[in-house]
Task: structure prediction
Amino acid sequence: EFAKLDHHRLIRQGFAEVVFCQGKTVEQVQAIVQRLAEYNHSILATRASKEMYTAVKAVVADAEYHELARLITVERQKPPVDSERFILVMSAGTSDIPVAEEAAVTAEIMGNEVRRVYDVGVAGIHRLLDQRQLIEQANVLIVVAGMEGALASVVGGMAAKPVIAVPTSIGYGASFGGLAALLSMLNSCAAGIAVVNIDNGFGAGRLASIINQMR
Amino acid sequence: EFAKLDHHRLIRQGFAEVVFCQGKTVEQVQAIVQRLAEYNHSILATRASKEMYTAVKAVVADAEYHELARLITVERQKPPVDSERFILVMSAGTSDIPVAEEAAVTAEIMGNEVRRVYDVGVAGIHRLLDQRQLIEQANVLIVVAGMEGALASVVGGMAAKPVIAVPTSIGYGASFGGLAALLSMLNSCAAGIAVVNIDNGFGAGRLASIINQMR
Amino acid sequence: EFAKLDHHRLIRQGFAEVVFCQGKTVEQVQAIVQRLAEYNHSILATRASKEMYTAVKAVVADAEYHELARLITVERQKPPVDSERFILVMSAGTSDIPVAEEAAVTAEIMGNEVRRVYDVGVAGIHRLLDQRQLIEQANVLIVVAGMEGALASVVGGMAAKPVIAVPTSIGYGASFGGLAALLSMLNSCAAGIAVVNIDNGFGAGRLASIINQMR
Amino acid sequence: EFAKLDHHRLIRQGFAEVVFCQGKTVEQVQAIVQRLAEYNHSILATRASKEMYTAVKAVVADAEYHELARLITVERQKPPVDSERFILVMSAGTSDIPVAEEAAVTAEIMGNEVRRVYDVGVAGIHRLLDQRQLIEQANVLIVVAGMEGALASVVGGMAAKPVIAVPTSIGYGASFGGLAALLSMLNSCAAGIAVVNIDNGFGAGRLASIINQMR
Amino acid sequence: EFAKLDHHRLIRQGFAEVVFCQGKTVEQVQAIVQRLAEYNHSILATRASKEMYTAVKAVVADAEYHELARLITVERQKPPVDSERFILVMSAGTSDIPVAEEAAVTAEIMGNEVRRVYDVGVAGIHRLLDQRQLIEQANVLIVVAGMEGALASVVGGMAAKPVIAVPTSIGYGASFGGLAALLSMLNSCAAGIAVVNIDNGFGAGRLASIINQMR
Amino acid sequence: EFAKLDHHRLIRQGFAEVVFCQGKTVEQVQAIVQRLAEYNHSILATRASKEMYTAVKAVVADAEYHELARLITVERQKPPVDSERFILVMSAGTSDIPVAEEAAVTAEIMGNEVRRVYDVGVAGIHRLLDQRQLIEQANVLIVVAGMEGALASVVGGMAAKPVIAVPTSIGYGASFGGLAALLSMLNSCAAGIAVVNIDNGFGAGRLASIINQMR
Amino acid sequence: EFAKLDHHRLIRQGFAEVVFCQGKTVEQVQAIVQRLAEYNHSILATRASKEMYTAVKAVVADAEYHELARLITVERQKPPVDSERFILVMSAGTSDIPVAEEAAVTAEIMGNEVRRVYDVGVAGIHRLLDQRQLIEQANVLIVVAGMEGALASVVGGMAAKPVIAVPTSIGYGASFGGLAALLSMLNSCAAGIAVVNIDNGFGAGRLASIINQMR
Amino acid sequence: EFAKLDHHRLIRQGFAEVVFCQGKTVEQVQAIVQRLAEYNHSILATRASKEMYTAVKAVVADAEYHELARLITVERQKPPVDSERFILVMSAGTSDIPVAEEAAVTAEIMGNEVRRVYDVGVAGIHRLLDQRQLIEQANVLIVVAGMEGALASVVGGMAAKPVIAVPTSIGYGASFGGLAALLSMLNSCAAGIAVVNIDNGFGAGRLASIINQMR
Ligand SMILES: Nc1ncnc2c1ncn2[C@@H]1O[C@H](COP(=O)(O)O)[C@@H](O)[C@H]1O
Ligand SMILES: Nc1ncnc2c1ncn2[C@@H]1O[C@H](COP(=O)(O)O)[C@@H](O)[C@H]1O
Ligand SMILES: Nc1ncnc2c1ncn2[C@@H]1O[C@H](COP(=O)(O)O)[C@@H](O)[C@H]1O
Ligand SMILES: Nc1ncnc2c1ncn2[C@@H]1O[C@H](COP(=O)(O)O)[C@@H](O)[C@H]1O
Ligand SMILES: [Mg+2]
Ligand SMILES: [Mg+2]
Ligand SMILES: [Mg+2]
Ligand SMILES: [Mg+2]
Ligand SMILES: [Mg+2]
Ligand SMILES: [Mg+2]
Ligand SMILES: [Mg+2]
Ligand SMILES: [Mg+2]
Result:
């Protein structure tokens, strides 16, 4: 038995165990999703290759694939969504979109209204200032940025909302695989920014969902 | 003019600019707090030495000092507090208490009910399991831990609450000033943990406050 | 002569020299295993590719390949095994299984009873607590975990057994190829955990075997 | 209540909770040791300053201080010691003695026979070879070394004993506070070496004790 | 002879050799400045302690000390200054002022008009936008920032001026002595930012001076 | 809408937004360049693969590809060039030429006269000294070097010109992907060197252009 | 002109410029070797692929390829060799042979007698002690080792010969691409070991040759 | 017995064991030097504080202290010196002199003629070129440099002599305690440079002595 599924997680955490596909064989991913599909309405598998999706699709017919975000989802019963309280996912550049989409789709399958504003990096600050109203209306903000990750600080200073910062590995040289953006976000002069791992769109989406559904 | 106070911050962020005392002269800290005190009910200065406090006290008579947490506070009008929705601050060891207190006092001055559970590190997991009920009642969790920072992952798996993880620099050798705990928390297998900078109790308290006051 | 085989090692260390295949040519691995097979009952070659195995098989007909663990083994005469004293190999996730298997097979070929418990990461702590009895019965514990490696600390706090922690390179971003799990395990608040190199299932299996066979 | 003592630890782990004094105030250390002294025969506090010892001594009269090792011990009832099975603590240089002593005293207070061989670094390999007999008689080996930590590999190749390697921060420049010795030991070509944190004599002593007392 | 003064530097570089006082004895600094004072109108010594200044003052009566910036200057003949072409030195926080002053005083003694705008960090972006006109009038911009150093990116996007970014060691934890700000600035999404070493106000001032005096 | 083009940038910065192709799909690059081509005379896309170029060429017929430098350019109207004021691009080795060319072509398309001197590394210092006259005539210097990057310091000491240093990832082992050259350039004893990111020829060309066009 | 050959190097350094092939195109390598072959008897090109060799061979018919060492050599006139004074190249493992061969062939083409002793790592110290006589007879020692690189320290302590230590990238996990071996060698407790870059067999061979030819 | 003196070292290595004082108590240093003084003519103790010297002086009356270099020496019988073959010690800056002196005094006490040329850093390359003749006459070169350490590469390219490069911790910010200079020297484009640890003047002096005394 290679996997001890945490079936209790739906009760404890409000969502089934999410499958981390990296480092697993195609057969393992297929078997795990199949087993999860017996007990859950909604399933999420992250960092999934297309090949994994094909194998899953063969046994779970209603599985879907989000190519850019590398996610497999099964969604049999849409959770009720409060469309007034939305999560705003912002990205600094176009290259950060795959991670931003991982966050957005994660939040959606967990029952949240999500809006997207991409390519609003700080080198053209007016693009960001144009979104001021949307930022003020949002309930939770996810900021996805690579390179120097400065977008998180600027957004963090604009409103007293929970800001979840996701550093990405976009960049080269002294970006050291996203380290520059990560350190930048951890040291933000805007107080109270929540940071997740480099490229961890999933974690950001999950955290945003938890916060967004607080009452 | 060495400081451009951001007086607009109270309106934009719900709390006056917080003074970061490190790297400032005693005179600068004194002058900044004095100026802030003209416009604000509540003031917070972090990483303040006792000497700085003495200088501040001379010009702002109702300033208080939290020695362990190295905070100067001024609180002229208690904000209304919803005592049902509390923030739970947990620490793995006794040595992490200064950072935990920075978080707790920050959240308190920003108008939150705060409870504390200290010294519940994972090496004696029953101590943590004993607190299960309190964890379930809390609205937001702050987990403060040095060394390997494993407490965050275990707490993160116990309930679907926002968990804010604060790595501390407690440790030695390959802890590299808190790096071990930081990396540990960023890579947590418990999904959706929010991480702040090493020893950044203030940031955790601020973030918890924002989340706790969402409606 | 490209290799000076340490034929004395069987006497000195109780097991023949183990071949580290990485960085060697297929021909070198083939020749070394062939020579070892002339003098030893049991042979182990680690980090072996399938291609290397095929070449070895051609000259040592009873060689076997453990694909997941990337091990080549030859075992001509089973060593006597004390089945009462077993080594328990635990993994945090399914993705850590290849390293866990490297440890398990290594310990087995060196004459130990091995039991396996996989996928009991701390994010669902009840899965681990369910194994309490097995943990108490084991003689030596091997804990294999990637990401933040917190499993080692929790297991380390549960019983006064030798715990050998193996960090894996499973993870991404700020896991930095297993550095996060490594540092986490080195800084464990559970006293007396033995740490080996990242992904070094072999070393863990070897150390566990030495300890398990002490009288 | 700043400390939740893990009084259950004596039963679970065979020794009372060990106090990590770093980062604690003198008052906290004093209070913790005093409380532990009510329930336990043997107490150990690590990384204790002389000032902490003086405060402890005032309330626990039979406390002792090991200055080099920075340990406070209380030992009211010597545990029975099997003097046949001894732990051998070796150090590469004279400068590594404080860490070696932390290991040795820890193992002693936990009821083990300990022998010491100091200053046998590999640059004069004959000094080490002279100790061959002692190494073969020992039950568990602790190797304490700074700089490049090569001693662990040489000892590890000499006998099939559990070798616990303790890197120290002795060195300068590219030793990076013990990182060189740590990496060296983790990458040892001698299979099955157990590594603990830099300067963690305590952890090595504890691990050696657990292994040494296996039957 | 412990110092080979580069007396040719005034001709080759337009300014005498600048003394780097760190790591020198008080006597060495005194002797070097004294010798330089025989041949040059303007002298600059960086990272000078007060004690060094006192020793220099004893032999070069017109030496001055800039305490915050830790600079010793001698200025016997003001160079002609083009007050139309000014260098604007900006700092993100009050704590960055010592480095900013090192840059400003360096540029002044080399014959440039300098203006200062301090404490305009991005967490209160309006403070920066208020300075838009000054930024447009400046000839060269020096941006001094610690923590996450985001100010450089925002300023870099505002005008097509040479922007010299100086990361400072202000911060704590994962700022790693200024590394976070340094990496942030090197990875800026605003194209064409010039970066100098952490805390290197002197280098920034020198570079700004060279650019500002181009015709 | 995956990209918010910063059309205002031509006015604000004197050149259209430059496309960073890494991390974008071929379709995204194609669409972005096509849209930019509607409003701008000169376009630059960096880190572009040949496949991206082919897709762009299909929709923007006059696009050109610089294979070594991995640049796509469109240049419909040559900007006026002051051939007296030239930028000198120097490389330490032949292997550094791709990055040097990225800098050179960037500066050219932005309207600058560029001269190239390649393969003048410091191990044969006479090759560099032979170029003294050219160095003195240049207006701005770009120094591209991998390995230990020493060329920047030597050139920096030769003339009071703005020197822009570009570390490259050429090297192996302890070059750590260009880190050695980067640190070397940041710590240069030649005062006032401007450093850009590893392999960032584009940034260097852009900065040189801004400086070269100052009046 | 992409390469400024340093034809003066033969006179200044006693050997023609050595071509570093990494990062160069096949055409560049071909052209450089061809040009060097017009002026020199002996030519060396390092880190050359087989494809580069084929291209070189087409224009320099007597070029030879050392596949393991990845070297191209041309040797038209054997330099006189003093066979009494030999360089001993030792490797810790079989996997280190490619780097060891790079060193050995480099030293040979520069006119030295070279002897090889491979696979004498410290985990079986008797293999090394068996070579004591050869070590004493050698004039210069090159020690090539990956993993923890301990061989250098042991050899360094055995005789008062110049020892050149070459760390290799052989290893995995916390070897960090050879960093562990590099730091180990730099921190060797055996005084006076010369260290070169990771995998830099060429540099070691060159240095050994210079020392070996001193009179 | 805290120290096992390697009295055999004089025979094996040509010089008595050198005492590394860092991390030892004053009493230990005193006792070790005293014991060495019974058997040896020449003694060297490195990284010695003034306090250690005073203690040593009390028991070994002819001990001398080199304050800058932090060395204690005893020299009872000058070894014969070949003044034709000298070692040239060069430093880049005045601040590097303490390390340079450690190298120089070490080489002298081991029986070598030593000459010194200090403060010839590459930022004023003519200072270095002025020393060309001396460089050509020297038998072995030691180059001591902090900051970016470029001096080693330039000297390495000037003559076919053994060059021993000593990085120093002089610098700040991104020098990271000498790491920048160390990496720079390891990656030198001048082939065949020998590198020792940061600030390891002793190792450089020892290595130079061994090479210088080869025949
Ligand atoms: N020197 C030490 N190094 C590592 N861990 C230690 C050390 N001393 C005590 N500990 C562990 O630290 C924990 C106590 O932490 P605390 O509650 O902060 O006193 C216990 O689990 C001990 O096993
Ligand atoms: N992309 C991801 N990043 C981080 N954690 C994840 C990711 N996807 C799933 N997880 C977590 O990984 C755990 C599952 O690991 P495994 O048992 O190996 O499938 C679950 O606790 C998830 O919350
Ligand atoms: N494998 C190698 N490692 C380090 N340096 C080398 C290597 N091969 C050649 N070199 C040096 O690289 C320089 C040539 O670089 P390039 O001009 O790019 O061919 C010469 O100074 C050689 O001494
Ligand atoms: N604060 C500083 N940071 C970096 N370089 C400096 C600084 N001050 C002076 N320098 C440079 O250091 C060199 C002088 O070094 P030294 O000979 O040791 O005084 C000169 O080339 C200066 O340009
Ligand atoms: Mg964009
Ligand atoms: Mg505790
Ligand atoms: Mg799982
Ligand atoms: Mg010794
Ligand atoms: Mg401020
Ligand atoms: Mg070249
Ligand atoms: Mg071998
Ligand atoms: Mg100087």
Notes: The mean pLDDT of chain B is 94.
